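Please, structure for the following, as tokens.
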Amino acid sequence: MALIDTHAHLYYENMENVLSEVLSRASSKGVNKIVCIGTDLDTSLKSVKIAEKYDNVFATVGIHPHDAKDVSSDYIIQLEDLSKHEKVVAIGEIGIDTFRNLSPINIQKRVMIEQMELAATQNLPIVFHNRDADNDILDILTRHKFYKALAHCYSSNLLFAKKLISLNVLLSFSGNVTFKNATNIEVIQNISLNNFVLETDCPFLAPHPFRGSKNEPFHVYTIAEKIAEIRSDSFENIAEATTRNAQNFFNI
């Protein structure tokens, strides 16, 4: 049964140096497509180059909220150039993070909105990061146009999930669904199969029982198994629905 990892960072040294092996392990578990996520101009370019090398890898380009304070005056022009590559399937990882707050909130908001505007002009989806910023995210999504949107590593409550879904935002679940302190179980139990996809966020957030080790795309299989358990559904149904949702969202 085919699976898609919708959020992976394949350019870290411990991944890129053994990438053929990483992709082979993923394929052995049915993970046949992977979206490599950029977080600044450098990693966005690296994501594109990895996608060029491997047929089953696609790329996003964008500026993470942690890096928003460091953007150059022409960063949007550079992102626009990268976004026109045939393997680029979204603008991201953009968003707001008030937990670590590594960039001033006003700059985070401005850079997110500017990238949303770029995505809209290119008819590309956005992939957004949200940590302790539900109200800010909802305000921006409500007031600014977007083509499609995906909430990366969804960890908020059911009420907020319903608000995002009402805006046609797709949710994405990662290895944190397997943690004992998971905050999104009620969400997984109460939304439609049409409303979510799977991700690893590798090399971070390895699922239980692999916590503490390097996360890899093949762990999407474990995440799908856990979500099937939570929903009292079959692994096959979860795999089929999330793969279809990811294919439709990213047009891959």
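The chain has a mean pLDDT of 97. The beta strands are 3-8, 31-36, 57-61, 88-97, 126-131, 149-151, 169-173, 196-198.
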